[in-house]
Amino acid sequence: MIQMLNLDDRSKNVDAIVTAGGIPKPGEPLYEITQGRPKALLELAGKPMVQWVLDALGASKKVDHIVVVGLDENSQLVSPKPLYYLPNQGGMLENILAGAQKLLTIHPASKTMVSVSSDVPAITGEIMDWLVSEIEKTDHDVFYNVIPRETMENRFPGSKRTFTRFKDIEICGGDVTAFRTKLLTTEGGVWRDLIAARKNVLKQAAIIGWGTFFLLFTRQLTLQGAVERVSQRLEVRAKVLKSPYPEVGMDVDKPYQLEMLQNELARRRM
Length: 270
Hints:
It is a single chain. This protein is an alpha/beta fold. It has a single domain (10-269), classed as Spore Coat Polysaccharide Biosynthesis Protein SpsA, Chain A (Alpha-Beta Complex). The chain is 38% helix and 19% strand. The chain has helices at residues 7-10, 31-34, 49-59, 92-106, 125-135, 149-155, 189-196, 201-208, 210-217, 223-234, 255-269; strands at 14-19, 43-44, 47-48, 63-69, 83-86, 112-117, 142-148, 164-165, 170-180, 238-242. Strands 1, 4, 5, 6, 7, 8, 9 and 10 form an 8-stranded mixed beta sheet that branches. The protein is globular.
């Protein structure tokens, strides 16, 4: 018996942007290992790091199309989902924006997209399905994953993540973010401002508001209070998802993190 596709369920799916443009430079922690090659192509347990990410997206029931930004067809990546490539655009937010625009040419009806960094190889299809299920519950514009410190350190002790302390919680950020495609049609606004300010802390503070910046710095804001203030300032409806999956925040920035995930993924293949 052939099971018919539920089109209503399909309409809730997302398209995915995989950012893979990073190439460690001399003096950076992973340069001695990469030697001028893309970090995304570092081998982990028999596969390029980015391939683990594509496998997770491919295993998800809720991801349709995928675009990889920063690599090309010569990377010899594989995916059960339609897979496209774009060259590196010069920066993280530029890569996300270009990837989103590419996906809209492929799938004009796309309503929601996820941006996934190529250096979180421990994510799984189950994690992606959980994320999309959470997105379906509300009509917010942007969704950002965070992991409580206890959750991260219990799962990956010794990972030495960078944590931000709020009045009520200490968290690290995840490398999987979701957003509604309608944000792409906004003239100017949040995209251009954030791209322009990506390397300037003072400009970032100006964008989110000096009062909010001060309260964050002095740890006088709760996490939800910070979300509400920044949402109001940027004129977007943002939602923070406290992920029960620390894998979304376990990225590879240092050699010891690479070794940790090498061991983790090797165990999965046994």
